[in-house]
Every structure is written in structure tokens, then in C-alpha cells.
Design goal:
Elements lengths: L4 E7 L3 E7 L5 E5 L4 H11 L2 E6 L5 H4 L2 H7 L4 E5 L9 E3 L4 E4 L4 E7 L8 E5 L2 E5 L2 E2 L2 E2 L7 H12 L6 E4 L4 H11 L4 H15 L7 E2 H7 L8 H11 L6 H16 L1
Parallel strand pairs: 3-4, 4-5, 5-6, 10-13
Antiparallel strand pairs: 1-2, 2-3, 7-8, 8-9, 9-10, 11-12, 13-14
The structure holds zinc ion and fe (iii) ion.
């Protein structure tokens, strides 16, 4: 079977709905279709039929297209988190479960990565992870219905994937995220190089997603809560000593929420 192809379908102002397909086969799966319209357009233009819908979490910008896509493709199976209130789900998943997409010759492992929301999932396959609003290029999601400790642990879990893993997050937030990263680590040379690279990509109208986990480990402050410079910056903002990576993470996330975004 030929190689899996991943396409970014842009939606709303800055979402990406990820479409999985294989050359010369009419089948596709979509991750987090917040809006059915651009997904339907892409399927039609490519002559594809929908086999599966994978949902990472309950927010409308990730689930809003399910109903219309199901109406158009009744055979598509809707997968998502077991402990979030998403009515249209047909297969409720938890950590350790697998999603098999036989027509795409593809199998995804389910990770639980709560924090942004209480039941957020990520889907991994060798070399790739679809992580919704948990880990972003250069940043991470806000804490809405989960906890800071959960999101910190979830990011540490994703950090254990192989460094060459491609990070398919759900939003084009990279440039703004890296601006905050530079507040935290103004002397990080890899970060400065990444900021220049991302600015050039955006000028050309290109997506900056997926990134690699290796890039995130080198430049994303939310994965660098053990780095002395990151700890020092978080402590300077919090005006107290922070005794654990979770405390550093919480200070960074709160700093960004209050002063940057
Ligand atoms: Zn969200
Ligand atoms: Fe979102």
C-alpha cells in the first residue's frame, strides 16, 4: 500500500483540519473538522470519500463540522474522547486504544493528554502525532476545563515521542507563540533562527505546521521547564522561587495569558 498523505485544510481564521488519504485510493479521514464546508470542498475536488472523523476534544472549532459531514458520509465512523460531552461520537476512546483505518492501511494509537480540556486526546502513528490544542508549534493550549498540572504532564508525555515526530497541531499560532517564547528566552539562538524562518514562511503564505518535536524541544518554553534560563525567567515574572517543573509551567502559562495574549 502506498504512503499516507496528510493535507492541511484551513478553516476559520487559523484552524487546520488534517486530512489523511493515500494516493490512488478514494478514502480519507479527517481530524477535528470544525467546519464541514472546506472539508467537503476538498473531498469533492480530490474525489475522496470520508471513512472516519477523529476528534481530539469538545470545542466547537474542532467538532462543528461533524453533523454535516455525517449527513454527507453516513458510513464515516466518528471517534473521540470517552469523557467529554460530544454527542455525535460513535466510538469513545481512551489511552491505549487504537483506531484502525483499513482503507488507509493506517493505525493510530490513542493518548490521553488532558489539560486544555478534561478529556483531550492525541492520535499518534510512527513519525506523527495529531495533538489538537495541547502542544502548539512554539507554545501550548490554554487551560480551560482541565488543570495546569494535567497540561504540564500531557506536554511531558508528548515530549517522550521520538524527536523526529511531526507535530500536527490544530492552529496556526506559531508566530505569536514564538514572540512569547522570545520573552522567556531572549538569548536562545535556535529560537531566534526559528523566528526568522517562521516569519519568512508566513510572508510566503505558508503553513508553519507541522513542526518537529526536536524543534519544539529546542525552542518551545512550555517543553523547557527544566532549563535554567526558563526557570529564571518564570521566577522573575512570578517574583518567587519555583520548586518544580509544574510550578514553572504554571507560571509560564499564566504569564502568557495575562501579559502577552
Ligand atoms: Zn480547543
Ligand atoms: Fe481550537
Amino acid at each position: 500500500m502506498s504512503e499516507l498523505r496528510i493535507s492541511a485544510i484551513p478553516g476559520f481564521a487559523d484552524n487546520y483540519f488534517w486530512l489523511l488519504s493515500v494516493p490512488d485510493q478514494p478514502w480519507a479521514a479527517v481530524v477535528d473538522p470544525g467546519d464541514a464546508t472546506p472539508v467537503q470542498r476538498h473531498l469533492q475536488q480530490s474525489g475522496l470519500q470520508l471513512e472516519a472523523i477523529l476528534i481530539t476534544h469538545k470545542h466547537r472549532d474542532h467538532t462543528g463540522g461533524i453533523r454535516a459531514l455525517k449527513a454527507a458520509w453516513p458510513q464515516a465512523v466518528v471517534y473521540g474522547p470517552s469523557n467529554e460531552p460530544i454527542r455525535q461520537l460513535e466510538q469513545r476512546l481512551q489511552a491505549g486504544d487504537q483506531v484502525t483505518l483499513p482503507r488507509l492501511a493506517c493505525q493510530l494509537q490513542v493518548l490521553e493528554v488532558p489539560g486544555h480540556t478534561e478529556g483531550h486526546l492525541a492520535y499518534t502513528m510512527p513519525g506523527r502525532v495529531f495533538c489538537g490544542d495541547t502542544l502548539f508549534a512554539g507554545g501550548c493550549g490554554r487551560v480551560f476545563s482541565g488543570t495546569f498540572a494535567q497540561l504540564s504532564a500531557s506536554l511531558q508525555q508528548l515530549a517522550q515521542l521520538p524527536p523526529d515526530t511531526l507535530i500536527y497541531c490544530a492552529h496556526e499560532y506559531t508566530q505569536a507563540n514564538l514572540g512569547f517564547a522570545a520573552w522567556v528566552e531572549p538569548d536562545n539562538l535556535q529560537l531566534q533562527a526559528r523566528i526568522a524562518r517562521v516569519a519568512a514562511q508566513r510572508d510566503r503564505g505558508e503553513a508553519t505546521v507541522p513542526s518537529t518535536l526536536a524543534e519544539e524541544l529546542a525552542t518551545n518554553p512550555f517543553l523547557r521547564t527544566r532549563e535554567p534560563d526558563v526557570v529564571a525567567a518564570a521566577e522573575a515574572w512570578a517574583q518567587r522561587s519555583l520548586s518544580s517543573p509544574v510550578a514553572v509551567f504554571t507560571a509560564l502559562r499564566t504569564w502568557k495569558d495575562r501579559d502577552y495574549d
